[in-house]
Each structure stands twice: as structure tokens, then as C-alpha cells.
Specification:
mainly alpha
Length: 236
């Protein structure tokens, strides 16, 4: 943990991580499928265990000592397993059945979590542990996805006032915004891959509890967009 940071920042990111899990559970339980609803419990257990594993790795300073490692350890042990898990859902019949039964409206509301995340990144920037380039004052416009999500979910999906193609376009744009900040964060961190922010690198996200962002929160949002895009493409 970065001990010089205000305690409220650690509390904020812990709450954001918990809120992400709650939103995902709320999304799964909103399904009309009994098969999908039954997966809510095991999903909560697995992701909670994953969160604990990441906390232990970060508290043991696993991700920090060797900044010359390639690939960076956080990619190898924190991000790659989540990517593999998401891919496995897409390639399996049961995984696709699970994803196709998730309610699109609630998948869209998942993006609300991006608002407190962006506020948290800005506060981390003020405390000089992430660069300005990773905030909405730099090149991170991810907060727009969180701000517009309620409109898309309520007006576009619940009331059916938006063409599915527009909702698909919104998902693609928001996914691009997410990918932008992911690569910005990666290329701003001390590693052989660093390209930006040498004066103030991204040193927060390999420490607990901020490690929850790349290893849990971002994958949940990423998953939500991929599932939404799949569902919308099947409707168009």
C-alpha cells in the first residue's frame, strides 16, 4: 500500500470494487433464465476469491519490485487470467447461453461504476501517484460512458426510444474509451513498455486496493460491453 496516501482513497477504491461486484450480481439476478440466476452465487464466490488473491499479491509487493519484467507481472497474474475467463465464456455453449440471457438494460447500468472510478483517478493524480494523462483532465474521457449510461439504459433500452444500431454504436465507442485508458495506464507504468508520463508514472495501480481497478473493475466493464455488443448484433 502507498502509505502516504489519504485513507479515504483506499476506502473509496474498496467501495468501488464492492459496488462493481454488487452491480454484476444485480445484473445476473435480473435475468429471466433460472440457469443464469443460479450462477449468481458461484460468480460472487469466484470473484470475491479473485479479489482476495489480488489483494494478497499486491500487499506482498508482487507487482512492484521488478519493473524490468516483460510482460509486467500485473498483466501475467492479474489481467491475463480475467481475459482467459472472458474468452472461455464466449467459446463455450453454456457461456454463450449465460451471456445471452443477461438483461441488456442492467448491463448498461454497469457503466455507472466508471463515474466514481474517474473521480478516484483524478484524486490519485492530485496525490501524484498517477499521471494527469490518465484523468479526465488528460486523455481519459471514460467518464462520459458513465454519465451517458443511465440515458441509454432508461430511454434507449427500457423505453425503446433509440434504434438498436445507436445503442450498439454507443457500446463500441465506450469500449474504445475503455481500451484507450487501459493502454494509457499500461504505457504510463514503470516497465519496459512505458511510453508516457516519465515525470509522474502510474505507480498506484499495482498497489492495494488500487490494483482492484485493472484486475477486477475494468474486466467487469469490459465483459459488459462485449456481451452487450454480442446481444445487439444478434438483434440487428
Amino acid at each position: 500500500m502507498l502509505e502516504h496516501l489519504p485513507v479515504y482513497l483506499s476506502v473509496l477504491f474498496c467501495l468501488i470494487a464492492i459496488a462493481s461486484l454488487i452491480l454484476l450480481q444485480w445484473t445476473i439476478l435480473g435475468s429471466d433464465s433460472r440457469f443464469t440466476k443460479k450462477k449468481a452465487g458461484i460468480t460472487a464466490i469466484v470473484l470475491s476469491a479473485w479479489l482476495i488473491i489480488q489483494a494478497i499479491l499486491a500487499l506482498k509487493n508482487t507487482y512492484n519490485p521488478d519493473t524490468d519484467a516483460l510482460p509486467p507481472k500485473i498483466i501475467l497474474f492479474g489481467i491475463l487470467p480475467m481475459i482467459i475467463a472472458i474468452v472461455s465464456l464466449f467459446v463455450s455453449v453454456k457461456g454463450r447461453t449465460f451471456m445471452d440471457s443477461l438483461p441488456l438494460e442492467r448491463l448498461t447500468y454497469l457503466n455507472l461504476i466508471r463515474i466514481p472510478v474517474e473521480i478516484g483517478l483524478y484524486l490519485l493524480c492530485l496525490n501524484k501517484v498517477v499521471p494527469e494523462i490518465m484523468t479526465f483532465e488528460g486523455r481519459n474521457f471514460d467518464i462520459l460512458a458513465g454519465i451517458t449510461a443511465p440515458f441509454i439504459a432508461w430511454y434507449g433500452i427500457r423505453r425503446g426510444k433509440l434504434n438498436p444500431k445507436l445503442i450498439l454504436l454507443w457500446n463500441v465507442i465506450c469500449l474504445a474509451l475503455l481500451i484507450n485508458i487501459v493502454f494509457t495506464a499500461l504505457l504510463s507504468a514503470p516497465s519496459p513498455l512505458q511510453k508516457f508520463a516519465f515525470d509522474q508514472p502510474n505507480i498506484a495501480l499495482t498497489n492495494f486496493p488500487f490494483v482492484c481497478l485493472p484486475t477486477l473493475i475494468v474486466p467487469i466493464v469490459f465483459f459488459g460491453h462485449l456481451v452487450s455488443i454480442r446481444q445487439l448484433l444478434r438483434k440487428i
